[in-house]
Amino acid sequence: MPLREFECERCGRTFEALIRHPEEEGELSCPACDERRVRRLMSAPAALGGSAEAGGGGGGCGGSGRFT
Ligand SMILES: [Zn+2]
Q1: Which of 1, 8, 47, 53 could form an S-S bond across to 30 if both were Cys, CB 3.0 to 4.6 Å?
Q2: pLDDT tens for residues 50-65?
Q3: How many whole angstroms from 21 Cα to the centroid of ligand 1?
Q4: C-alpha of residue 4 to centroid of ligand 1, in Å
Q5: Distance (Å, whole) CA 48 – CA 57
Q6: How far is the CA of 46 from the centre of ligand 1 (A)?
């Protein structure tokens, strides 16, 4: 989903808006003070740690000893 984050130039409020068409970005206004001058924030990707996959499974002993 093209969810973008914006900041109002007047009151400094940040808000998110769903931008499906580029022209929608120019139609935005601040939800708090209705200011039209908002700027898009750089959406920083969430810093995720590398997913560590623990490989399990020990080898089984398949030796069958026979005593006769
Ligand atoms: Zn505002």
Answers
A1: 8
A2: 555 666 666 666 667 7
A3: 22
A4: 16
A5: 27
A6: 25
